[in-house]
Amino acid sequence: MRRLPQVPAALEFDVVILGGGIAGLTCAVGLLDAGLRLAVVERDELLGGRARSWADPTTGDPVHVGPHIVTDCYSNFLSLLKRLDTGDRVVWEPESLLYTMFDGARAIELRRSSLPPPVQLLASLRADPALGLLDLASNAAAAGVALGLDERGVLELDGLDGGAALTTLGVTPAMQRRYWQFAAMSILNTPLGRCSAGSLLRAFHHAITRDAVRVGFPGVGLGDLFAPAARAAVEAAGHPVWTGTTATQLLGTDTRASGVRLADGRIVRARHVVSTLPPGDLAALLPESWQARAGLDSLRWFSPVPYISVYLWFDRRITSRQFWARAYAPDDLNCDFYDYANIYPGWAGRPSLVGSNIIDADRVARWSDAAIVERTRRELEENLPAARAAILRHAAVHRIPLAVQAPRPGFEARRPSVRSAVAGLLLAGDWTRTGLPSSMESAAASGWRAAEAVWADEGRPRTLVQPLPPRGRLARVVMAAARVAPWPPRLRRAMAQDG
Ligand SMILES: Cc1cc2nc3c(=O)[nH]c(=O)nc-3n(C[C@H](O)[C@H](O)[C@H](O)COP(=O)(O)OP(=O)(O)OC[C@H]3O[C@@H](n4cnc5c(N)ncnc54)[C@H](O)[C@@H]3O)c2cc1C
């Protein structure tokens, strides 16, 4: 008798969540008490996605994929940690310090002052010797536009690049180089001339309308902040978390998603398919008839920002700082540095373990690890001369092809909403339409939002997404005035030329 080919039986769930990074795990946690059958599918053996971490194979010390910060404005990421009871693993900077920028060996500290938002950082900026009063004053028009910005305004500015917008608004080259270029790289991971003016001015809006943001760091391996606890919670509720499992094709009719095929041939059927995959990975799974559908038609437009993160183990303590950044210079490699000996609890007697981020790392993709370590060390020594005497015991170079999607002009308009044009297919991930820069906060907000959409579709709506912290009173008054003020005609002209 001829044997029929084995067709694996479909696995039946109510919700299948693709991706076990922050967005996917947040969504799963948000659905734990929904009484639905869930499954999480993650390609990597390790959960955590772009926020994963591991023990360095030589030293055994916890290292993140690359150094990350959180801020006290991360309402959604912090609410995930609260649900998982891991919020106490975040180590916060001293109250008043926002960050330290090194120009050579000179440290310029940006601190919150007693002034309220939106002018809370003026005193620190005034103390920066690279800037004169005219440079500071040149921000007025840009600040006016940013203060009055809403999501419609973000989309209007989206076609223009950040550098062109600032130049049009009269921001001096010195001011652009010193702070705007730095903000574009560190918040948006994209140089001013290549980032969306909408993304840039919205980030500025958030930064100046709230009390100067406090910075925090994972006090454990980054992934250990959320991944093991999320997995334990999901599995304890009886739901599988499949790691090392790749989704290869989304399934359904022309108009409705009904499941996913896995690389091992298994089929997972579900009424709700939640993708938290980056756009390139999602594009590879779409049936042809979905590829032109609204929200799914731009997936291949997005482009990744690659990072290289460097970890250096020294024989001694070289600083008492937790975190510092270099003043922007186009030929520099590194943007931000961290000393984990001053961050990880219990490391008080340990020598320095310095981590750093090289953003937009295509520039140095061909460099050897040794050359990257050598140059990173040189940049570190420029800022911290004490590092010159230290002996480097060990180094690790992490090459990361995708840190975030580049917010180039047109990015905001293409970010898809949680509900796609295909019924039953929900979209989440840091790059989706959250109104936030691509970040852990955006990923968590998108995960909660996808869970909200499932709850709503089940006829039991509930609120999971947390608002950002409230704005200062003066900021609200100034915002109201800025909202009714027309944008400078020269900005409108630049937008028209660009569009
Ligand atoms: C070096 C570095 C530094 C950063 N610094 C900061 C920072 O300081 N602050 C901050 O807020 N953010 C920072 N970020 C960004 C932050 O890490 C991301 O925004 C966030 O982790 C994205 O989470 P996500 O869940 O949206 O996506 P991801 O973490 O990418 O999750 C998607 C998951 O889907 C999986 N997947 C893909 N394809 C498939 C498939 N076919 N089948 C199954 N699974 C699949 C992937 O393996 C991945 O785990 C940084 C990122 C990097 C890399």
UniProtKB/TrEMBL annotation:
Molecular function per GO: oxidoreductase activity
InterPro entries linked to this entry: Amino_oxidase, FAD/NAD-bd_sf, Zeta_carotene_desat/Oxidored
Gene3D superfamilies: FAD/NAD(P)-binding domain
SUPFAM superfamilies in alphabetical order: FAD/NAD(P)-binding domain
Pfam families, A to Z: Amino_oxidase
Location of the Amine oxidase domain: 22-454
Domain of life, source organism: Bacteria
Protein name according to UniProt: 15-cis-phytoene desaturase
Organism, as annotated: Nannocystis exedens
Upper lineage: Bacteria, Pseudomonadati, Myxococcota, Polyangia, Nannocystales
